[in-house]
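Shift notes (night). Ran GPI ethanolamine phosphate transferase 1 while the centrifuge was going.
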Amino acid sequence: MQWRLACAGVLIHALLIYSIFDIYYTSPIVTNVPSHEITSGIAPAKRLVMFTADGLRSDTFARHPEKSPFLHSLIRERKGVYAISRSHVPTESRPGHVAIFAGFTEDVSAVARGWKHNPVQFDSIFNRSRESWMWGSPDIVTLFDNYPTVHSFMYSSTDEDFGSNEAYKLDEWVFNHVEKFFNETQSDPELKQRLMSDRLVFFLHLLGLDTNGHGNKPRSQEYLDNIEVVDRGIERIQQVINGFFDDNSTAFVMTADHGMTDWGSHGAGTDEEVLTPFVAWGAGVQKSGVTNTISQVDLTPFLAALIGVAVPVNSMGVLPTQALDVSPNYLFKSSLANFLQLKEQFMVLRAEKAKRLWFQEFDTFGLKALESLETEILKLAKLRRFAAASSLFVQNAPYIKKAIFHYHRYDRAFLGAAISCCFMAWIALVWCYLTRDRSLSIFTRNTLVPNRMFSSLIGCMMIFCIYCRLPLTNWFYLLLPLFLLSVIENVLNATTRVYEFTRYCVQNYSTASFTFLLQPFLGAIGTSILLFVFVIIFMDRRFLSALFVLLTFVPYLYSSSAANEWKRAWQLTCIALTPFPFLPNVGKSEIPLLCIGAPLTLAIILRKLPLHPLLEKKSENFRRLSAMLMVTATLILVSSYLFQKPPALLRLISWLSLPFSLLLPLFSPPTIVDRISWFICSLFVPYSLLSIAYESTFMLCFIPLLLMYLRFEFGHMSATDFLNLPADRSFTTVCTSPSRRVAGAELSRAVICVSFVLAAIFGTGNFASMNSFNPSTLSRFISVFSPFTMATLLVLKIFIPLLMISLLFAAVLRFDHEAIQRHSCLVLIITDLMAMCFFHQLKDDGSWLDIGLSISQYLISICTSVAILLLLLCASTLMTTTLSHYNVKKLKSVLKGEQNDCLS
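Came back to this:
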């Protein structure tokens, strides 16, 4: 592969990956928007005390009033207001807190930037307040402490141990430090004077419930007891604050950022995750007991109205007027500030899109409708019909929000078409590289300069971009396909060839010409069907069973006696794999017996294999592998049934299994069969330790399929020759065609490779568990909350089967770098066609699981070819590298000699 083509591929794919965040996941934050104060005078409350019980489910809170007697007494005695708060997906801690304090559901690109030490870069209640104090988890508190008027206090992130039964102490830490803060203020006159000001916010983030929910599940006694801890702590803080200020000018609010599923995860849009409790009491709060469901983003204008500050400028919340106990005049001022804040966003976004050549007003609610609404609201206010003016705004607010969303997504269809053109032009260029004559080079000085026709097209497109004032990134999306097509034109003289071929077909109207056209037409239909199957598997993994059924026909592609001999076993294995896609995604429940049984079964099989006469000489290798798998099964048994939290020694062994799974096979005999056996069994060890259900059982059925495919590819050899085939480049290469045409065998290998990759990713549902996973999956490796370590382990779990596939195909391709590159190019064409389909299926609303899946589908398909190329090159090196005790001794002597040289 030419290095220029490889560099071009990396740059183009980087642009295509960036494009989804530029087109679908642009930030909803609108800059240069003026704010509108509610009042410069006295607000209903001088200070706000905000409690967020992270991970508290609404149904659990309602079903167990005995666990929260203080909060339920406020509801029963009508001392405040209670409602169900409907949070927004993704139901994660960062988006939830952004929705509460900033008023919008944070865009996915911002969530992807990380949770830790990443201050939120937008307007919120905290920077609108005069001064704020906050206590709690560093993952949340540090999001908002990037202003000089915000003071934060937090515990260490290492305390967030979901394997601990004392997670409630995280909440007790918060309550103790808040009480300590007010006690110490008595001896600090300067701080005490600051606390006597108005527009103050005190924020208490309570993580204990979320930690207990992850580790012990929401129906556990630990979770319920933690609710009691939170309730006692809130009552205690109220007493401390009322005793300190003694002016009845404090508003208290308790809610949650999200709920949690029964198996201890969150992120999706189920009622258990979305619905959270909302309790408010104190100054400015209605004493009505129970009210209707409110949206989580509506809390932002509610909190702003309580202390009289401006609504954060990017808020999409609508003031819940029924929750406020204020005068009609103040209620109108709050509603008007909310209306003007939404109007400012509308005007800024509309002004940006009005520069487009194809600009069209939003049909449902345009500029004239907005101006008419404002006129009517002000007219009602002049007539002192404040309640009617507030009600009119609340009724029309959904239309304003729809218009804002419309202008935010205005260019999506147009830019999506441009990206599709980028994909098609790039795929055409790769195919041109594979099928071109060896004497032709893709990237030279002559081919990179567009001819007159394409120069004119590129010039016209640049004028169009300047006229529409498009961002620079949009220029790349529009100009890239034209440039790539110009390269193809320069290499193949494609325009002339197409013209001559078309003229030939017209002049020689006969059956022969249509027969000539029929072959590529049927090929296109076959490609479309295959592409449809691959794409639909991403949508619904149950269609993977259809792929397994199609794979039963693979033996018919080979005419060797080995294929006939193993055909029945291959087909039975494919049929045995078909039920797995119908099983629930791994992560919702634990099945320790299957985790123990898989390595144990493989160990027993390896013990029995030497009974075959051909494998008798390899008995020693098989015994060692069997012993290693027996130890693995024992470790899983001990960790599952003897320890709730695995000891440090077991976690150390688990971590060591990762590097040793790659090192131990290097000491095995240097034959393809021995190396493949050692690598597969060694990699099976950490995979089993990362399993919690049927994943390792699936791999136990999938591994024979890989081994039989290897036998098919070497079907021309006898069994004895195959078993002794050396793992080196000493035998014939697979890429010997001087014409550089793509052979049918190359295409079938690429298709089977993609099929195996999809089977590895979706066979157990691991792909979905990346977005909503059970922390128990990683319990043998880690118990302390660490998002990036967890994500790394989950990625490794997915990559282990992919490495097994790569080791297999490295052997099939005879470790030949040119064959590996051609194979990767064919895989790239398939996966990029899939990625083009997934681009138009991306979602920027819905559950975190849905959003994450749509992004992951696109990213996995677009990165698969690069991953396959790198894994094949690594696998080729691993398979052909041999270590021995002699090598180790030699390395020790070299190191010892260097040490002596340094000492001398």
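The mean pLDDT is 86. Residues 543-728+746-889 form one domain.
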